[in-house]
Design brief:
heterodimer; A: alpha/beta; Rossmann fold; four-stranded antiparallel beta sheet; globular; B: 355 residues; mainly alpha; ABC transporter involved in vitamin B12 uptake, BtuC; two-stranded antiparallel ribbon; 14 helices; 3% strand; ATP hydrolysis activity (chain A); ATP binding (chain A)
């Protein structure tokens, strides 16, 4: 088998006396979507922060393409081709699409003796890249990011990562704040990124979304990896149970059922 | 010597708005957030043209508000850039007299060549700005507090050193004809040469904000400092550079005032603290950063100067000027908010989409 693009071996992280992650080992391959599942507080965010260079692991080994790496800063991680897109995507709502697409890497052109920001080219590239991800409504790169919908902002951020040659794309709950249609669109974009050979790490607590796009799944429970399986190896129910901590979910459901029964209310399950 | 007896309008509101970049299409022009500032300026101009009589629109009348606008504008532009980047600089209020006193004491009291005084005054500006910038990025204390501290520290330093060195709080300065002509003269007996400096700085700042990479970094930092740093922007360097430019410009105004009026006073210049913020906010810059335009800042500066000076051409008591500015500020912020919302929702093919 080929070497995975990104491999974590025995990653531990503690903040002072509090252990947040124990012995996490993961592998991500090119053109594959790894879904990182877990309930709130399971350690997903900490793991993302380690991957994106915000935190350093207390111990453990990180390899890219078989070579050991260590990220001193988010900049360092992005230089290694790791791009992180957060839940709300575009972080500069009052900047134009073209400008925010190229923040920190602005295209320039000569203008007499001066080097100036090439607004036209920036806008063109930004709009083209977004179109390639199926956002066809946007045809003016001068529009402000704040005028985009949540899904469009996700698309903008993903388009940006793809354009700048990310090889690992970390998506932190990209669908959590979106409606059904927009979430579907973002999932389609995830598959498009996968087809381009990008390794996608998709963080979510929505099992349906995970099953739609995932090739490979890892479930975190209280800082440990509780399960690691490939597509088709586990059912949706089994995964939901795992995320909520196994038996606890059954208990919870029983509790809900008895509550519904005594209150004579129509059954209304959890999300997903 | 600077603006009159009224200099304490409180700035409470968060302010809004301004544009994306250069050369928009005609269609989007009407949606540009500066429209609010433009309407405001035209309104006060019309108002004072009617109530101010012929004098207000004469060359002398125009000079009186353009002169005020030029000095304020030179400071408001870099302060505006700082505000777009998410910072404030209150220390300009002390920087102006500190710089005036520096040149007056060196070139007036000690009779050193005028160029020494000029360079020392501007150098002091760069140094104070550097200290402001370093303090803000090192301590992570909000720039409001840091520059409030340097405002007072510098005022105390100026007063103390002036008394020790010259024995007075007011020092006379005699500058040669060249320095006069370049920094502190009246053209046609009316228009200060600072007007040309203002125009030059408008062009420079306009270039920086709209056409340079640096301008994009400023906008990004004001939008989200953490993301900006993660995107590879040298945020510390940009912050220091911005604080240095605002202090430098304040020092420039202090220096040119000393040359213009042939003297310097310890207490001058405090009015610039709020006046610069007001001009910037009326001009549609978002007080929390991330948004603003040079055209807006220029319009805001003109609006402020027109009200400030125009009142003397009307039959009203000049004490009402502050009331007008207060009301105007609030109205401008509300109007700018409206235009900013319009700019956000602006879509060439006005097609709304379910979220």
């Amino acid at each position: 088998m080929t070497t995975p693009l990104l491999r974590l071996t025995g990653i531990n992280k503690s903040f002072g006396p509090i252990d947040v992650l124990h012995d996490i080992s993961l592998e991500v391959n090119r053109g594959e979507v790894l879904c990182l599942l877990g309930d709130n507080g399971a350690g997903k965010s900490t793991l993302i922060k380690i991957l994106s260079g915000v935190h350093k692991p207390t111990s453990g080994r990180m390899e890219m393409d078989g070579k050991s790496v260590e990220f001193g800063s988010p900049r360092d991680a992005s230089d290694h081709g790791i791009a992180t897109v957060h839940q709300f995507g575009g972080t500069f709502p009052l900047m134009s699409i073209g400008r925010s697409f190229f923040v920190g890497a602005e295209p320039t052109r000569r203008w007499g003796p001066l080097t100036i920001y090439d607004r036209k080219r920036a806008n063109e590239i930004a709009v083209t890249e977004m179109r390639q991800l199926g956002i066809t409504r946007i045809d003016d790169g001068d529009r402000l990011v704040g005028g985009l919908s949540g899904g469009e902002r996700q698309a903008l951020a993903i388009a940006r990562a793809v354009h700048f040659g990310a090889s690992v794309l970390i998506l932190d709950e990209p669908t959590a704040a979106l409606g059904v249609k927009e979430a579907a669109h973002v999932l389609r974009i995830v598959l498009q990124a996968r087809r381009k050979g990008i390794a996608v790490i998709f963080i979510t607590h929505n099992v349906v979304h995970a099953l739609t796009v995932g090739d490979h799944f890892a479930v975190l429970i209280r800082g440990s990896k509780a399960a690691d399986f490939r597509k088709g190896e586990k059912s949706r129910e089994a995964i939901t149970d795992l995320m909520a901590g196994g038996e606890q979910m059954a208990e919870l459901e029983a509790e809900i059922e008895s509550f519904s029964a005594t209150n004579d209310a129509p059954r209304d399950g959890a999300h997903a | 010597m600077t603006s009159q007896a009224h200099d304490q309008p409180a700035v409470v509101a968060t302010a809004p708005s301004a544009p994306h970049s250069s050369m928009p299409s005609l269609g989007s022009l009407v949606r540009r957030p500066e429209v609010g500032s433009l309407i405001g300026m035209v309104a006060v101009l019309v108002f004072f043209s009617i109530f101010g009589g012929a004098n207000f629109m004469s060359a002398g009348g125009a000079a009186s508000w353009l002169n005020v606008a030029s000095e304020l504008g030179i400071i408001a532009l870099p302060v505006g850039l700082l505000m777009i980047a998410g910072h404030l600089d209150l220390s300009v209020g002390s920087m102006v007299p500190a710089s005036s006193m520096t040149i007056a004491i060196l070139s007036g009291h000690y009779d050193l060549p005028i160029i020494v005084g000029i360079l020392a005054a501007l150098g002091l500006g760069l140094a104070v700005g550097f200290i402001n910038g370093v303090l803000v990025i090192r301590t992570k204390v909000p720039s409001f507090v840091v520059t409030l501290a340097t405002l007072f520290a510098l005022a105390g330093l100026t007063l103390g050193l002036s008394i020790i060195l010259s024995g007075s709080t007011s020092v006379a300065l005699k500058s040669g004809p060249i320095a006069k002509l370049v920094f502190g003269d009246y053209l046609g007996g009316k228009f200060q040469v600072t007007l040309f400096w203002w125009i030059a700085i408008v062009l420079i700042v306009g270039f920086i904000l709209n056409f340079s990479r640096f301008g994009n970094w400023i906008l990004a930092m004001g939008g989200d400092a953490v993301s900006a740093r993660n995107a590879g922007i040298p945020t510390d360097r940009v912050t220091i550079a911005l604080f240095m430019s605002s202090s430098l410009c304040a020092a420039f105004v202090g220096m040119s005032q000393a040359i213009l009026y042939n003297s310097a006073q310890v207490a001058a210049g405090q009015s610039f603290i709020f006046n610069s913020i007001i001009a910037v906010v009326i001009g549609g810059v978002l007080l929390t950063g991330g948004y603003g335009s040079v055209v807006g800042i220029v319009l805001g500066t003109l609006t402020f100067a027109i009200v400030n000076q125009g009142i003397f051409y009307t039959g009203f008591d000049a004490n009402w000027a502050s009331l007008i500015i207060g009301v105007l500020l609030l109205a401008a912020v509300l109007m700018n908010n409206t235009f900013r919302t319009m700019a956000l929702t602006y879509s060439p093919r006005t097609k709304t989409r379910a979220r």
